[in-house]
Amino acid sequence: MGRRELRIKPQPEKQITNKEKEIESMKTKMMYEMTINNILNPLLEIVYEYKASNAYNYVPGTSEDAKAGWDYYGNKFKAIFKALNANIFLNKEQYNCIYAIVEGLFSFTRKFEYANGLPDFFFDLNENLSYYQLAFTVPKDQRELFREKVNGMPTDEEMSVADNYHLRKRKRSNDLNLKYDEEDFFVEELAYAVRRAFQSVFDL
Prior knowledge:
Layout: H1 18-47, H2 66-86, H3 92-109, H4 120-125, H5 143-149, H6 156-175, H7 182-201
Helix pairs in contact: 1-2, 1-7, 2-3, 3-7
């Protein structure tokens, strides 16, 4: 008697119904809306308060002590972390990426060091942020002295590129009568990096 073959009947591919497509579309829409309204926009509000809060030392528009500023922004970030955890439509990778962005900005508000307080990935997202590191703020007549004493000082070429960048920024402000200063320019670049960070999370 010959050996009997066991044949497994192939299962037909599951057809996605219009109702299931509608539900997935609704979930995606809610994920984006919750991310933008409850995470991205509150983060950008904090970024744009950099100047009004004296680099997050004070509650904006006041001159209270630093602890008041830390408490104020600590509560803001608690609300953002809560919103992140409430967004159950994010997958694990998206959640982890956004968590890193929020955590990085929270750490930045605790450092008050211009761009030096930012995590490295922000500089990958916007290389112009490099020109707001403390090393690029050294006056021209003191650069050689600092280069002799400080490790990692930018080269003359790098300094020249940074000088030209700041010159272009000031010229644009003057031409358009924007009355921007270096803090305003820094906030523009940081906000752009945050925008790029969220685009990268969703491959936009």
